Amino acid sequence: MDKLSRLTPEDRENLIAYLDGELDEQATRHMESMLVESSVARNDVEALSRTYDLLDELPRPNVPNDFVERTVATAKMEHVSVPISKRPWFRKTTQILTLCGWTTLLVASAAVGSLVSSRYFQSQDDVLIEKLPVIENLDVYYEVDNLEFLNRLSAETSLLNEMAREANDE
Amino acid sequence: MLRVKDGDDGAFAQIVQRFQNRLVGVFTNMFADSSLAEDLAQEVFLRVYRAKQGYQPTAKLSTWIFQIAHNLASNSRRSKGRKKEVQFQQSLSGSQPVAFGEERLPENSSLMPTRQFEKSELQDRVQQAMSLLNERQRMAVLLHRFEGMSYADIGEAMDLSPQAVKSLLSRARENLREALESFVQ
């Protein structure tokens, strides 16, 4: 390399990476040979190093003594100040569980109500079915008119026999 | 950090102690406002604390913390985006920013030793040179120079490839050289 020729942009980039120790072995050797051969490269390296060293002049402020204490307290307070009952996930879960609870209660109430009503309260159809034998013989019961008389009659065997004979004769 | 995850607040205090000045240093030189720098540094630690349960030791702690710092700095920059951009420099002793370009002459300058004045002037010039960099270049330079981070770590913290960091730092250092060359000749 011509010792006074300007460096290419890639060489300049690599030169800085070389200063930072970020090049691999092969690129490092290339840079070292370039520095040996090129006074421009050597000047660049020196200027880059010296200007970069000036950054040590930048302020490096120290924080107040109570910074750690304040930061830890703030972090803990932030953590503690939101009780579990106030956290969004907890509130959401509570809402869902409440909704599920009320729904279950409603369904259970409906089931119990249906069971009770079917057990203790008869419908009109149930009454009709239960009284069907009476309904079927209602005409006979009207003709009998008096159940006590019928019972006494059934006790008079001789009279019933006579009535039967007469009925046969006719 | 694993101890912090297990609820050891003493370990968290140690992390704050270890990184507090480093973070404030980076933020101060990013934004030239020590009060803002302290607030941002504290916010970084609060985010670390909040994220403790999900922490996985996949990267270096310092890289992770500076990744949070970089994100916070980017958000802070965006939130201030519509404000008129005026570059400030931080006075050495106070928290009030001073506009770049103004000569910072202490009230008792006649009593100040020449050497101290020269140092102060040099610091002004370096800060001025830093203000010429864009914010990504500035962050990369600060992480490299102040934190001694490798290109790979800077890339991880700033979500860039090592090659992109190499180019970023190269441009930044060329800019710094142009701005400061007269001081080193």
- Determine the N-to-C terminus distance of chain A: 157 Å
| Percent of sequence in beta strands of chain A | under 5%
Low-confidence stretches of chain A: none
Helical residue percent band of chain A: over 70%
Radius of gyration of chain B over all CA atoms, rounded:
18 Å
What is the highest CATH level, the class of the domain at 1-81 in chain B? Mainly Alpha
String of helices and strands of chain A? HHHHHHHHHH
Continuous helix count of chain B: 8
Radius of gyration of chain A, in angstroms, nearest whole number: 56 Å
- Gap from first CA to last CA of chain B: 46 Å
Q: Do you know the CATH architecture of the domain at 1-81 in chain B?
A: Orthogonal Bundle
Shape estimate of chain B:
globular
Which range does the strand content of chain B fall in? Answer: under 5%
Would you tell me the overall average pLDDT of chain A? 84
Structural class of chain A: mainly alpha
Estimated helix fraction of chain B: 55-70%
Protein name (chain A): Zinc-finger domain-containing protein
Organism (chain A): Thalassoglobus neptunius
InterPro entries (chain B): RNA_pol_sigma-70-like, RNA_pol_sigma-70_dom, RNA_pol_sigma70_ECF_CS, RNA_pol_sigma70_r2, RNA_pol_sigma70_r4_t2, RNA_pol_sigma_r2, RNA_pol_sigma_r3/r4-like, WH-like_DNA-bd_sf
Organism (chain B): Thalassoglobus neptunius
Q: In brief, what are we looking at here?
A:
Chain A: This is Zinc-finger domain-containing protein. Chain A has 170 residues and is an all-alpha fold. Helix content of chain A is 75%, strand content 0%.
